[in-house]
Amino acid sequence: xxxxxxxxxxxxxxxxxxxxxxxxxxxxxxxxxxxxxxxxxxxxxxxxxxxxxxxxxxxxxxxxxxxxxxxxxxxxxxxxxxxxxxxxxxxxxxxxxxxxxxxxxxxxxxxxxxxxxxxxxxxxxxxxxxxxxxxxxxxxxxxxxxxxxxxxxxxxxxxxxxxxxxxxxxxxxxxxxxxxxxxxxxxxxxxxxxxxxxxxxxxxxxxxxxxxxxxxxxxxxxxxxxxxxxxxxxxxxxxxxxxxxxxxxxxxxxxxxxxxxxxxxxxxxxxxxxxxxxxxxxxxxxxxxxxxxxxxxxxxxxxxxxxxxxxxxxxxxxxxxxxxxxxxxxxxxxxxxxxxxxxxxxxxxxx
Length: 351
Prior knowledge:
Pfam families: OPT. The chain is 69% helix and 5% strand. The chain is mainly alpha-helical.
């Protein structure tokens, strides 16, 4: 199977993991992880942190004369890992509150779940690299977009657009939230017999940016989910719970019905999608592990100097890292954490 040549040849030895790239990666990872956690809790979707990180780091690294594209790539890769950790937290830990198992969030326990899940996620993704990245049949539109952003990092464009976008978004948010001049939501509800009909919509610069990042497919799936929940399911479900209309106005009755009954439609859809994704990954994971094991056991490959673009952390180091993290988790949740019954399933879902 043919493979495309890298933008930077494997024989070239240029700066990649420099001190400035590591410091910038840590700062952007923290910033974008926090913003993505907020967006995921507010909108229910996780936006891409890679493209904003690539653009921001591109603008900052331009201040240095000898900055390289590989440093920029390292920064956006770290930011992507922070986005994944934020997604693992906001999509799993609140479920323990919803089901009533947790009554509050414990910072130390959440930190260990996020740290262990992040490290294990990185270790588990290493054997998947060859089968996912080198397989030409697989398409990564977001990765291709990031590559184009990085390739054009030498051009003096992008930073000005980023500043203008931030000013416009901040001004719109100020008019909506600060001065209350523009509305940020709209809804209309009415009752036919015992069925509640209606729908609402929100508008903000945050949602526009999130929609641009997730693309048409994700936006369409969210729109279809809203149609199924509010247009189809709500009138049917409200027939069986007339007491909500007796105690609340129609708009509050719809929201209360959603909070108490209908949100489980979305939880079931998310659970099924996660299981289906896991099933689809079994075969690629098996092939990738077999290839990695073959590389490790082949003594001829051990004596060869692999090119820079094809080096991985050795498989024994991955196994050792997984065992160390597993031992630390066992000791922490056995003796230090007050929640040790559901937490292993939580970590599995976090991954």
